[in-house]
Amino acid sequence: VQLQASGGGSVQAGGSLRLDCSASGDTFSGYAMGWFRQAPGKEREFLAAIHWNGYSTYYSDSGKGRFTISRDNAKDTAYLQMNSLKPEDTAVYYCAAARMFVATEKGEYDYWGRGTLVTVSS
């Protein structure tokens, strides 16, 4: 499956962004989806994951409370709604797909999008 993340950009602290992850090339509903981010000089970290059917979601401490993952299998798209953004949220955000019901570890994901840059200014 091929993934394309979009929706990144520059926003002031306290603002919101929605990231989209469009999938093609395979049956989207057969994959768990996840969002990760990587800040300069840091490891790529898990933020959120959603079950293949969308019924269950999982968040890291970094993603919990301000971020919401969702998916629309009819549109082959996953989303990450980000609210109350902070300067420390500045990073490249990646979506990923796993051939599992749900996945919360980086190593469990089979396919990755190229990433979209989010910059939050104070």
Task: Give a structural overview.
- The protein has 122 residues and is mainly β.
- 0% of the residues lie in helices and 50% in strands.
- It has no helices and eleven strands.
- The strands form two sheets. Strands 2, 4, 5, 6, 9, 10 and 11 form a seven-stranded mixed β-sheet that branches. Strands 1-3-8-7 form a four-stranded antiparallel β-sheet, with no helix packed on it.
- β5 and β6 form a beta hairpin.
- The chain is globular.
Unreliable runs, pLDDT <50, ≥5 residues?
A: none
One letter per element, helices H and strands E, the order comes to EEEEEEEEEEE
How many helix segments?
0
- C-alpha Rg (nearest Å): 13 Å
Give the helix/strand class.
Answer: mainly beta
| Shape annotation | globular
| Strand residue content | over 45%
Q: What percent of residues adopt helix (DSSP H or I)?
A: under 10%
Oligomer: single chain
Question: How many strands, what sense, and barrel or not for the largest sheet?
Answer: 7 strands, mixed
Features:
single chain; 122 residues; mainly beta; seven-stranded mixed sheet; four-stranded antiparallel sheet; 11 strands; 0% helix; globular
Give the gist of this structure.
By secondary structure, the chain is mainly β.
Question: Helices, strands, pairings?
Answer:
Layout: E1 2-6, E2 9-12, E3 17-24, E4 32-38, E5 45-50, E6 57-59, E7 67-72, E8 77-82, E9 91-98, E10 111-112, E11 116-121
